[in-house]
Amino acid sequence: MPDANALVGKGGYPPSAFYFKVVFSATMGMSDTSFQEVSGITSELETETVTEGGENRYQLQLPKAVKHPLLELKRGIASATSPLVIWCRSVFEMDFAVPIVPMPIAVYLMDENQVPIRAWTFANAFPVKWEVEGFGSTKNEVAIEKIALSYTYSNRLI
């Protein structure tokens, strides 16, 4: 395990958010494509409000369950042979003739030496939305696709 100073970053600054890696079990360790953005790494404790009889000064907030929003990945449109594209097509274009195969996903925040300094894993993830951003004849931008994934739970490893 890296020392505490390495986790904070050089000079005591927090790590940069632009150098990260997303790993899918479907790619079997091979590089699929780079992602422009990852969002939705969030855990929220859902609570239930309970009013205690005879107590009018406050209401109790009792914990219920941890909920997770969708994990969203944004990248340039990949080739049809991309393992991630094949996985998404099996979910959205096969009319459920083929069962949805959930898979683990890991997101790593890297340092300048390509060493992970933070890591999150997402269990039983599967795509629930596959979107292509709009095209514009006046823009000079890369064509972007967004993939939203549902998952059972997440863990922060480092």
From TrEMBL:
InterPro entries: CHP02241, Phage_T4_Gp19
UniProt cross-references to PANTHER family, sorted A to Z: CONSERVED HYPOTHETICAL PHAGE TAIL PROTEIN (PTHR38009:SF1)
Protein name according to UniProt: Phage tail protein
NCBIfam families associated with the record: conserved hypothetical phage tail region protein (TIGR02241)
Pfam families: Phage_T4_gp19
Single GO MF descriptor: structural molecule activity
